Amino acid sequence: MKKLKRNKDKQFLILVIIKMAEYREFPELLEMNCDEAKASIEAQFPELRVFICEEDGMFTMDYCEDRVRIFRNSENKVSSIPKTG
């Protein structure tokens, strides 16, 4: 991992961690159009990687704090609460 040398870098990292800890889940996006939900998360948290997945699709079970998976149903609506991980 890259070593943080400047106070500014450390302060930024702390702010990102605090901001991400506040919004681990996005219940307000449930039943929303998936593309709109993805745009909403990316606008609020540009540091997160957001993916739209089929609700019955295959995916890895690893945990990534900078990733949000949005599961969609056949109507392209968010089928479960998106969360980081």
Keyphrases for this structure?
single chain; 85 residues; Trypsin Inhibitor V, Chain A; alpha+beta; three-stranded mixed β-sheet; 3 strands; 2 helices; elongated
Describe the protein.
The protein has helices at residues 7-22, 34-44; strands spanning 49-54, 67-72, 83-84. It contains 2 helices and 3 strands. With 85 residues, the protein is of the alpha+beta class. The protein has a 3-stranded mixed beta sheet, covered by helices on one side. The protein has one domain (25-84): Trypsin Inhibitor V, Chain A.
CATH architecture verdict: 2-Layer Sandwich
Helix content: 25-40%
What is the count of distinct domains? 1
What overall form do the CA principal axes indicate?
elongated
Q: Could you please say which CATH topology applies here?
A: Trypsin Inhibitor V, Chain A
Rg estimate, integer Å:
15 Å
Strand order within the widest beta sheet: 1-2-3
Strand content: 15-25%
Instruction: For the record, give the distance between the C-alpha atoms at the N and C termini, rounded to a whole number.
Output: 20 Å
Largest sheet: 3 strands, mixed
Q: Could you list the spans in which at least 5 consecutive residues all have pLDDT below 50?
A: none
Helical segment count: 2
CATH class: Alpha Beta
Mean pLDDT: 85
Secondary-structure class: alpha+beta
CATH homology superfamily name? Trypsin Inhibitor V, subunit A
